[in-house]
Amino acid sequence: MRIKAVFNKNDKRQKMFIKFIKQTFPQMITEKDPEMFFVCGGDGSMLHAHKKYGNTGLPFFGKGMGTANFIMNNFENNFEIISGLLDDTIKPTVILTEKIGITIKKKNAKKKIYKESINDIVIGNGIMDYHSLVINSERGAFENFNYRGAGVCVSTALGSTAYNVNNKGDVLPIDLDAWSFTSIVGDRDVRDIMKPQKITIKVGSERQTPILFIDGTATAIPLSKGDKITLSKQEDKFKLAFIDPKVFFAKRMKLIQQKR
Measured between alpha carbons, how far is 15 from 18 in angstroms, rounded to an integer? Predict the structure, then answer.
């Protein structure tokens, strides 16, 4: 299998591993026509890699070097694993996960901004901020819903183990076609599990304006009063590759048990 390595040279944890790859598998650095991306670091590294290469439709294989490593593989025998991937003696299992399509219409801009999320979107900024948002949803769960508070979070099933779970949202089964919608310290307590659908969120704040965070801090877009964010289901899927997907599922189950 042709594999391209994706690194963050500013991450000190990756320094020795980058050196190892350059010396042992230099073709992974120069690969021009990959069949899979190899990402090392924490879960955030995977989010940044998707931001850069997500439009290729190729699977992403992660080596965990972070704290949680929910979407990464954990292994120490680097030479054996990478050699096996390259010569196809190790065939990883690819898991398909949902993505959120994001359209941002700035009030005073002619062109719309298009993004996508594999994990979550958060509209807010500081925990003490007080934003005004008007929310509508295609299936009627929200109809001119006026929310005031620190912000809101919408996560995919994959991303439900991230910001969402720390915001008292439910961890969703990875194969569930659903989003988790949670409010952040607001005048209403929203904890909804929703079918992916068109959702519009319009910024009403004037004194304090929020930021749109996509997949943690991978993308941050300042918002102003009158800006409108539209969320929709993406038809294409994010592809995560694992040596043993049972380990991935076990991590999620353990988190569910801890949060009970």
Answer: 5
Query: How confident is the model at residue 256, as a pLDDT?
Result: 75
Taking only the tens place, the pLDDT of each residue in 99-117 is 999 999 999 888 999 999 9
For the chain, what is the domain count? Answer: 2
Rounded-to-integer distance, Cα 238 and Cα 241, Å:
10
Confidence at residue 254, expressed as pLDDT on a 0 to 100 scale: 82
Which of helix, strand or coil describes residue 84?
Answer: helix
- Beta pairing, strands 211-214 & 120-124: antiparallel
pLDDT tens-digit series, residues 26-80: 999 999 999 999 999 888 899 899 999 998 999 999 999 877 788 999 999 999 9
Same domain? For 220 and 243 the reply is no
Tokens of 136: 């509508």
Find out whether 229 and 209 touch, Cβ atoms under 8 Å: no
Q: Are 43 and 30 members of one domain?
A: yes
Query: Quick one: 170 and 89 in the same domain?
Result: no
Residue 211, domain CATH: 2.60.200.30
Please indicate, yes or no, whether the overall pTM of this predicted structure exceeds 0.90.
no
Residues 6+ apart with CB under 8 A from 102: 114, 115, 116, 117, 121, 212, 214, 229, 230, 231
Domain shared by 141 and 255, yes or no = no
- Domain carrying residue 87: 3-97+238-259
Gap between the Cα atoms of 52 and 47, Å rounded = 9
**Within this chain, do residues 24 and 51 fall inside the same structural domain, yes or no?**
yes
Mean pLDDT (whole number) for 150-175: 91
